[in-house]
Amino acid sequence: MDPPGPSEKVADVEFVRAESIDEASRLLADDPSGTRLIAGGTALVLMIKHRLVELDRVVSIAGLDHLVGVDVEPGHVLIRGSTSITDAARHPVVRAEFPALATAFDVVGNVRIRNAATVAGNVAEADYASDPPSVLVALDAEAVVHGPAGTRHVPVGDLITGFYSTSLEDGEIITGLRLPRRHGQRSTYLKYRSRSSEDRPCVGVAAALSTDPAGVVQRCAVVVGATGPRPQRFTDVTDAVVGQPMTAATIDEVAAQYGARIEAMADQRGSAWYRRRMAEVHVRRALTQLAGPEVEQ
After folding, report:
1. What is the CATH classification number for the domain harbouring 20?
2. pTM
3. Residue 130 belongs to a domain with what CATH number?
4. 2, 134, 210, 253: least buried by Cβ within 10 Å?
């Protein structure tokens, strides 16, 4: 079967290949309730197939080559929105400077999904159990958002507002993810599965740590995902350790605070109580891993 043309019906849904990001934005803004954007299609196609959404039109930006690739600048790295999760995970600068993000990309779904899904689509879906968003929040990543009013940068932590919901306005499209480069930053992502090695996370913990040569903390970020409607970060807890050495007692305190404060839901992967305990355990493990063997007992 030949692929759909520039504009034709597929299963009673009009399929339009946008020739520019401005065209795609305009089509979305003209019919925000009946039109959806597609690039990789790994989530939206399933939703349409199982009648979880009813649409009049799907707008594809898969052919816009300028939305693919990774740009490395002195102060930041820009992962363009239609870059596949596989390609983003394999990029040498992503792996070297943002190992937690490479890890999170590597454990999304399976290899077929990673080869098709895009980094912007993953974030825009705002799936509470997706792996990359919590890492992006920990790394202070921003979404580059293009819409009828122009382009703006939105912290990923502000973009995701709840279960499968974002702060995107009508017609806005994520065209890239912008990550600040920090010399000496260490990061990790721990994905805890309670049922099988291929399952979605029961708890996901992303952490980033920067210290000076004496081991004094300059920046600390911890974000817990998959336990509630959006990635959870308590900056007052992590900011309190800045200016101190990262000791075992400090790590225990941060972990205990996260275990007590996170919003935790119950589902087939675990009870709320279990999720809070696993969050505490994995926050402790993540920070201990980043602090290294020199952590003071």
Report:
1. 3.30.43.10
2. 0.93
3. 3.30.465.10
4. 2
